[in-house]
Amino acid sequence: MNTSPSPVFEARDLQVVRGGSLILNVPSLVVSEGEILVLIGPNGAGKSTLLQTLSALAKPSRGEILFRGQKIGADIPVLQYRRRLAMVLQEPLLFDTTVYNNVASGLKIRGMKRDEIEPIVARALERFGIAHLRDRSARTLSGGEARRASIARAFATNPEVLLMDEPFSALDPIMRETLIEDLEHVLRETRTTTIFVTHDRMEALRLATRLGVMNTGEILQTGSSDEVMNRPVNEFVASLVGVETILQGKVIRKNSRTFFASVSGQEVQAIGAVGLGEQVSLCIRPENVTLSAIASGNLTSVTDTFPGTVEKITPVGHYRKVQLNCGFPLVAYVTNHSFSDLSLREGTEVLASFDEMAIHVIRKGPPVDP
Amino acid sequence: MDLIIEGIKKAFWLLVSFDPEVLGITFLSLKVSGTATLISLFIGISVGASVALTRFPGRRIVVSLINTGMALPPVVVGLFVTISLWRNGPLGFMGILYTPLAMIVAQAVIATPIVTGITLAAVQQLPAKLRLQILALGATRLQMLWILIKEAKLSLLAAVMAGFGGVISEVGASIMVGGNIKGYSRVLTTATVMETGRGNFDVAIALSIILLLLAYLINLVLTQVQQRERRR
Q: Less Cβ crowding at N or C end of chain A, within 10 Å?
């Protein structure tokens, strides 16, 4: 007996062409019940187009979308389908009326009676902490309050799927943080299937049960946050998920498990099944690079250790981002504590080390004759 | 100077004595211009919103025609409505020339482009994504149109004011298609023209004061509504 539920969304061969150019090209995308798929990518990656296509607000030039196994527009009428979803856009786009009427608007559109609407709206307002704003005009809300009202409006219709298009991108960090926290709470509680679009990596990692990376209309990779963060399929994904160092190298020696790649004249040891002479990209996350003082001697057991010079130091919250020149460029994150311990400044000579296990290898093509 | 003072005195007397003729003229003005404005709102808001929301070939030409229509000279409208309603004109069979109905038609023709143009601009000014949001909330196209019109309501009140203001103060078309018949198709503006021509400045002044007061009162009410909406 097959007990696995049919996916909520199943897109096949989806293409959107605008003005002669292909702006969305998704051969296949499956979204399962209860998952929070976060799509991350730069502006113009096609994230919004994908959301609009999935919500039947934009027509695909090719391909089809199945919602719980039913073809939208054929097996299930578009209007009926839209009424099972909710969408939150980047702007709150509230109507020029009270907060209550705004949150009630989706229900009114569905023809619900006034006394049925009342408790549902009250609950939605409560859930997003805006019950006290109920009778206020939407025009007088602050950015954060307006965002809350817009999300409450979406949740009021009890959607089977929630589509969110960069809903927090215009908010200041503190407001964003509390809103994400509340949204996370409600999503876990309601287990609403969600597709969330953002260009903010931290936001993505925070919410995602699955992460997808988009660029130029294509989904380059989907997987668990851990998978995408640590095993990006290409350099674009790597740089987008916060890999600061991507070294270009050529495999010069190898044994059963490890290999050595020549990078700007230095040898870097890494793990992976590669061919001799093959071009590889070595991705190293800055948090996996450790710095130690030259004077401490080369006591580290870590496989890859290189002397280097500090070229630039940038404060990043609780960390310092340290850019080094080890014959190749390398970026490390150093806690403020070890930063002062090592008394780092531009020009300081240090030892930089990273474990071979922490290098993600991207193969760049067929091996060249050794 | 005496002329003006005497005129104002007489005008005041006509007003406070509720002169039946003046009252009749006033009510007819309100009835004709009010009805014409209602008709123009019905047509203008539907057409304006539809043009604002759709893309079709030649749309720019349509928009520029509407904008030109906002400045349609009343005498030109009067001329064409007269020709149309003339005994052997295309609509002559209706037999409504020189009736208040003909005046309503002419005034509606004058006010409709004004209401259409303002509606068009108001709906176009709404954020483009708002339509997506409304559809995403599960609205039908008709529900979306209604919500958008409600969103543009402040500007639409301006359309009401401009439309009504345009026709209540208009004289050329009313005289041409209504004929300024005493007790039948005489309105405030046509009566003012006639009394001025006859040198009865007192009556003309009285009629003008009523005209101004009407325009002011109606705009006052609409402005109150508009500003209250804005503050909310």
A: N
What would the two tokens of residue B106 be? 């002419």
Would an 8 Å CB–CB cutoff place B141 in contact with chain A? no
A153 contacts in chain B (CB < 8 Å): 137
The helix/strand/coil state of B160 is helix
Q: How many CB pairs under 8 A join A and B?
A: 52
Q: Are A261 and A270 in contact (CB under 8 A)?
A: yes
Do A93 and B127 lie within an 8 Å CB cutoff? yes
CA angle B45, B51, B57 (to 5 degrees): 160
Task: Find the closest chain B residue to A159 by CA distance.
Answer: B137
Residue A23 exposure: Cα atoms within 13 Å on the Cβ side: 20
Single-letter code of the amino acid located at B217:
L
Q: How many CB atoms lie within 10 A of CB B131?
A: 20
Q: Are B168 and B216 in contact (CB under 8 A)?
A: no
> Do the Cβ atoms of A344 and A292 come closer than 8 Å?
no
Q: What angle do CA A26, A153, A6 make, to 5 degrees?
A: 40
Please tell me whether the overall predicted TM-score, pTM, comes out greater than 0.90 for this model: no
Measured between beta carbons, which residues in chain B are less than 8 angstroms from residue A82? 135-136, 138
Which tokens sit at A210?
Answer: 């699955």
Asked if A91 and A167 count as a contact pair (C-beta separation under 8 A), the reply is no
Which two three-digit tokens encode residue B164? Answer: 């009504």
- Cα–Cα distance for residue pair B210/B105, rounded to 1 Å: 23
Q: Does B225 touch chain A (CB under 8 A)?
A: no
Number of residues written out for chain B: 232
Q: What is the CA radius of gyration of chain A?
A: 25
Tokens of B187: 């309105």
- DSSP code, position A353: E
